[in-house]
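Ticket #4471: structure output looks truncated?

Reporter: J.K.
Steps to reproduce: submitted the chain below (146 residues) through the standard prediction queue, then opened the result file.
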Amino acid sequence: MTNKSLSVDAWEALFRAQVSVVRQLSAEFPADGLSLNEYDVLFNLARVPDRRLRIRDLNRALLITQPSVSRLVDRLVSQQLVRKEHDPVDGRGTIVCLTDAGFDLFRTVAVVHAESIHRRVGGALSDDELITLTTLSDKLRLAGAR
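Returned output as attached by the reporter:
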């Protein structure tokens, strides 16, 4: 078992690094009219087969509350970047689908955003450190899922 003080110090360092990086990436975010949270919805939909997820699964992937996700999806629907469909398996459920226009916007923004991430994160860490960071981050995330 690790020392409690080391755990708290590690958390503080991780949290402050995350806040710093997100602030810079938000400031450099390349899309007019598309927020980082809206991009996150498009990102998550672009990564799954058929570019569609049940809204409750999308909720789990995002870092905002359920009511916020519903409003966010409705905004993206009004911009024709996603569409909502009834879940044929669960009549109460909703499926969110990425439209072609949404996917095209995602790809355009992703290229520029990835370059910003590379400058900020890749510019500060070596390849080995990036691999270690990914491994440790996944380990923390998966430990929280138990």
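Triage note (M.O.): checked the attachment and the full token line is present. The helical segments are 4-27, 36-46, 55-61, 66-78, 100-122, 127-144.
Status: closed, working as intended.
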